[in-house]
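Entry: Pectinesterase
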Amino acid sequence: MEALPSIITVSQDGKGHYRTVQEAIDAVPLGNTRRTVIRVAAGIYKQPVYVAKTKRFITIAGISPENTVLTWYNTATRIQHHKGEKEIGGGTFGSASTIVEGDDFIAENITFENSSPQGSGQAVAFRVTADRCAFYSCRFLGWQDTLYLHYGKQYLRDCYIEGSVDFIFGNGTAMLEHCHIHCKSQGFITAQSRKSAEETTGFVFLRCVITGNGGREYAYLGRPWGPFGRVIFAFTYMDQCVQLAGWNNWGKPDNEKTASFFEYRCFGPGYCPSKRVKWAKHLGDKEAEQFLLHGFIEQPNKPWLSQRMAFKVPYSA
């Protein structure tokens, strides 16, 4: 059992311990082993945020995602960050408004936004390069490459994610449960980058909702950024924005032989098994079992998720 968490408060009016989220993160000791909860007062915090590898066991908790917003405007070709490119990386990798590289991170009731306008190219709202990270009732806002699940195991519940092109991407092992996925324009929801059949990575969307901006058939469920890309949609509602073909091979027919794109008991006007590409698969009950439980992201002898859930800390004034 972990020790009780320490609490740090952030408020732009000076009534908390710190005025910015980054100042609070910087105050967490290097090599931290005790959960630190950073409670963030309502406000729009306009600055990039970076959680280094040495800053583990951090929770960032807001009042509500609509009222507590972390936002910045980097793109792959224009990065302005309080850390140097040597630390955070360049291109798409370094363009995230918020970057988390410290394991055992939790966020609750926060909006993570990249405010770069449509047409800016790759502009990540949030990149996670860390293991055992969980997100509850968060929003991820952007256009292209909104949420970069780069590495590690992640769990998202009751979150809202919007974008247009490849806006949930990377090679993480992630379960998104009861999440709302919103397609803002023509594009692709996922771009998972598993590189071999031996890798256990992939994205599972469980009991989610996919919506769009009113048009018909303009968004694909995904395309393989890596040749063995793996994505599963289960018990998910798909509105008319979803292309009836479902999936795209990224212009590489060879990807059709290796990608693992699965659906299971989905529904809605965007779900049409008879019109899906032939190389995607509709799972049977037995085949789907491995993707329907939290065991997809945690091993029975290492139950990180249940322990982390004990430290969901609602904001209180």
